[in-house]
Amino acid sequence: MSKKILVLAGDGIGPEIVAEAVKVLDALQAEGAIDVTMEEALVGGAAYDDCGDPLPAATLEAAKAADAVLLGAVGGPKWEPLHFSKRPERGLLGLRSGLGLFANLRPAFLYPQLADASTLKPEIVSGLDIMIVRELTGGIYFGEPRGVETLESGERYGYNTLCYKESEVERICRVAYDIAMKRGKRVCSVDKANVLEVTEMWRDVAVKTAADYPEIELSHMYVDNASMQLVRAPKQFDVVVTTNMFGDILSDCAAMLTGSIGMLPSASLNAEGQGMYEPIHGSAPDIAGRGIANPLATILSVAMMLRYSLDAGEAADRIEAAVSKVLDDGLRTGDIMSEGMRQVGTAEMGDAVVAA
Ligand code: NAI
Ligand code: MG
């Protein structure tokens, strides 16, 4: 049966990079390698401009009805003066909570062809391939109570609350263990169990859940040490599983080990395996409309979509191999350009992936 993809191009470079990812899907479809139908909708600043709401009800309904959502990026200086509730980024948060996307998969891998893009020494990062599994709908970003109050003394008192239910910890650990079973079978659970009771419980649940995965080698690390180890010896990690906030910070750090923001995809999944797929970068307003953005992170997000939500792992492998081939052939967008390579624009890069 045909799978439904909702395409949300968004703002800035979003429409340019998403167009290339759609080309790749179209090419696979034309060959009969996948069977999908695509529908488009508005989100972010584009939706605000259209109807005054960064996440129109029709868009959320279409997302719920789809098997997977492909998102470009949202936001830009044009919408910065708006109230927080109307900002494009609210559209993204609304999609995450509306779809219950509790598992955020953030791979950090280095294509050998781009080894010189990292700010770290090649021997530290060459062959790097980490998967960070971040809990996305709980923890301190969503905990109640929250707020800022003025005390009797006149001083302000601000608070957010870190909370997790055991079931929330268990389900994110299961996602991490299932992924690790298809990789190196090593999972490092990152917490702050020495200081935070919640994460002491996290560690306990991680251990208990691992009993169902006898082949998984589970280790634990405090978040401060993990951040240090990520830049000292990142290749020691295979899969990392952690809380919403720790994962937010560690995944950005891990991404930057590879040096190229235009290359990394991400997936956010719910309990039904439905997912939203997007590049990790933003809408890059500084280069929008010039046809020079790197579409590879978005194209690789399509590969993750095929693998995790559309049951088309073989097509996903082919996309990843095609990206590797165009890099082998020396094609580079500006963000990953280096000496002796051939600089191309967004569309030329997309066409090359399709051809490969
Ligand atoms: P950004 O990721 O958009 O850009 C950072 C730098 O990387 C810029 O110099 C940009 O030109 C470059 N860059 C990003 N993607 C690129 C690509 N595919 N090819 C070549 N170069 C690329 O982050 P920034 O500038 O902090 O944010 C810009 C806007 O994007 C803001 O409104 C922000 O809120 C929004 N944003 C949206 C996200 C999303 O939709 N998921 C995530 C991060 C930021
Ligand atoms: Mg972040």
Give a verbal description of the structure.
With 356 residues, this protein is an alpha/beta fold. It folds into 2 domains: 1-108 and 260-356, Isopropylmalate Dehydrogenase; 129-257, Isopropylmalate Dehydrogenase (3-Layer(aba) Sandwich). 40% of the residues lie in helices and 20% in strands. It has helices at 14-30, 44-51, 57-65, 88-99, 122-125, 166-181, 197-210, 223-232, 244-257, 296-308, 313-328, 346-355, and strands spanning 3-10, 36-40, 68-73, 103-109, 129-135, 147-150, 156-159, 186-191, 217-222, 239-242, 265-269, 275-279, 331-332, 342-343. The chain has a 10-stranded mixed sheet with strand order 2-1-3-12-11-4-5-10-8-9, sandwiched between helices. Strand 6 and strand 7 form a beta hairpin. Helix 11 packs across helix 12. The mean pLDDT is 96. The structure holds 1,4-dihydronicotinamide adenine dinucleotide (NAI) and magnesium ion (MG). Residues 248, 252 line the site of magnesium ion. Residues 248, 252 line the site of magnesium ion (MG).
